[in-house]
């Protein structure tokens, strides 16, 4: 596993961007203490993978778990950054990356494919994470985000893409991913002049395309979420699934750690735990 590979240099830029977000950078020293405790200082492969079961509690160590605080935009962005960091840590050394919706980082073909055109107006989804799994054997050149964008544009049919909406609150936001997923699956509603995609790209042009929802949730007491709860029903059918920062609960939500096998398994050449062990040995995950 080459630390200097184009995918890993791209991942490095993605991670560095996270630390330009004040709410994330401020919370990180506290979160890192808990992360190190759960992962034996980032040397335990299973501990790293199973951080997905603990992300909600890690998030709350900085006091951002309560509804009044986490409803603030800073708390929501910090949660998005934490999920992004976790997913890239598990995917280190693989062909997959996950990034915040920063124009300089997201491949233009993905932005074009996920653009909603309503009449003459164009818009993308809310601030969502973007996951990309590159096809194997396509990189050969000098790294830059623009170069990565060209690779995706030329190899869209062999590229897997996932949109991941991250929200601290579940009840107030469940209808949003439900509606976006419906639009993307339908690729628009021609009778209402709603189309998905531009410049020759749409979700159907990728090898796989999924839309997921990841929440803390800020409500705290997860026992209140039942299979018949309206918030649960709204996201149950998402193409990419619904997840939270706790262990999986049958018919309610999966742990975030399950998102890899479900949507991005093609990123790994081995089972995920073995992959993480090799990545630790290669020094791609540092204490």
Summarize the main sheet: 6 strands, mixed
- The neighbouring-strand order within the major sheet is 1-4-5-8-9-10
- The residue fraction in helices comes out at 40-55%
What structural class do helix, strand and pairing data support?
alpha/beta
Cα-atom radius of gyration? 18 Å
Distance between the termini: 18 Å
Number of domains: 1
**How much strand?**
5-15%
Q: Count of DSSP helices?
A: 12
Outline type: globular
Number of strands: 10
The low-confidence parts are 64-72
| Mean pLDDT level | 88
Helix and strand string, N-terminal first?
HHHHHHEHEEEHEHEEEHEEHH
Protein architecture, described:
It is a single chain. The chain has 287 residues and is of the alpha/beta class. The protein has one domain. Helix content is 40%, strand content 14%. It is built from twelve helices and ten strands. The chain has helices spanning 6-18, 22-39, 45-49, 55-60, 67-70, 73-91, 108-113, 145-154, 175-186, 230-236, 259-263, 272-282, and strands at residues 96-99, 116-118, 121-123, 129-133, 160-167, 188-189, 194-196, 208-215, 242-244, 254-255. It has a six-stranded mixed beta sheet, with helices on both faces. α10 (230-236) links the parallel β8 (208-215) and β9 (242-244). α2 crosses α6. The longest helix has 19 residues, at 73-91.
């Amino acid at each position: 596993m080459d630390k200097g590979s184009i995918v890993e240099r791209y991942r490095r830029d993605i991670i560095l961007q996270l630390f330009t977000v004040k709410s994330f950078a401020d919370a990180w020293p506290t979160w890192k203490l808990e992360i190190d405790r759960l992962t034996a200082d980032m040397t335990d492969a299973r501990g790293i993978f199973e951080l997905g079961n603990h992300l909600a509690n890690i998030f709350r160590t900085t006091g951002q778990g309560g509804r009044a605080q986490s409803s603030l935009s800073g708390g929501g962005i910090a949660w998005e950054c934490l999920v992004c960091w976790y997913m890239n840590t598990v995917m280190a050394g693989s062909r997959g990356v996950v990034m915040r919706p920063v124009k300089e980082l997201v491949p233009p073909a993905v932005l074009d494919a996920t653009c909603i055109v309503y009449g003459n107006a164009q818009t993308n989804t809310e601030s969502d994470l973007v996951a990309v799994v590159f096809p194997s054997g396509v990189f050969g050149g000098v790294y830059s985000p623009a170069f990565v964008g060209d690779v995706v544009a030329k190899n869209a049919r062999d590229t897997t893409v996932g949109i991941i909406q991250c929200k601290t609150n579940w009840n107030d936001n469940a209808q949003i991913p439900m509606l976006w997923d419906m639009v993307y699956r339908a690729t628009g509603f021609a009778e209402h002049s709603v189309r998905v995609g531009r410049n020759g790209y749409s979700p159907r042009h990728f090898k796989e395309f999924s839309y997921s929802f990841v929440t803390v949730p800020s409500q705290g007491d997860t026992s209140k979420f039942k299979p018949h709860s309206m918030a649960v029903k709204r996201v149950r059918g998402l193409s990419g699934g619904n997840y939270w920062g706790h262990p999986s609960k049958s018919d309610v939500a999966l742990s975030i750690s399950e998102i890899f096998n479900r949507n991005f398994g093609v990123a790994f050449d081995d089972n995920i735990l073995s992959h993480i062990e090799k990545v630790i040995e290669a020094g791609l995950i540092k204490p």
